[in-house]
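Fig. S4 source data, part A: sequence.
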Amino acid sequence: RSSPVAPVHIVNEESADKTNLGFIHAFVAAISVIIVSELGDKTFFIAAIMAMRYNRLTVLAGAMLALGLMTCLSVLFGYATTVIPRVYTYYVSTALFAIFGVRMLREGLKMSPDEGQEELEEVQAEIKKKDEELQRTKLLNGPGDVESGPGTTIPQKKWLHFISPIFVQAFTLTFLAEWGDRSQLTTIVLAAREDPYGVAVGGTVGHSLCTGLAVIGGRMIAQKISVRTVTIIGGIVFLAFAFSALFISPDSGF
């Protein structure tokens, strides 16, 4: 007698549904956490201020490359922890979400209404310093180095044509500001407990939305955003993820 094949199809459909649900859950978790972490953050202000002074597409490209690279690295770090039994990583990540949530709520409640302005001024000073360094470098190099002859000028121009100093500045400032930031740590924690592909896509989309908003809106949006309100909402979102662990089993596939 041939064994029935129907149960196999049912199992395959169930596992496919579980995978899709895991991806969607991870995507929604990542995009919501990134948005509440990044709005009014240092990387947001970097993109906003640089976009007011330089070509918007160049700034957007540099910032997005840095954030995309950081998201992929964070997901890899988080996914590497999956060698540890899931039950441990699940509850450790839940505890971290609760800690992040409580800290964000405390920070938000203690913040002054003009907290965003202080961050904005700090980033402006940092970008001004980088601009001065760039101008000094240009003055030192000059339009062309006479001693080295005309042969070296052409490759230099070609190199700068493909990678402009503004692109490098946007990439470097964003990458350094994001390293060790709350959103990076959150992405690592999410990748340890959720579908890594969903976290990578959701995180990238979340960063794209925030950076795109900063580049398009510039200073106007940066000045109107209440960092205090966003931080309090962020704390509530983090606590909601931690609270949901009480109702979701570690082996549920999310």
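Fig. S4 source data, part B ends here. The radius of gyration is 23 Å.
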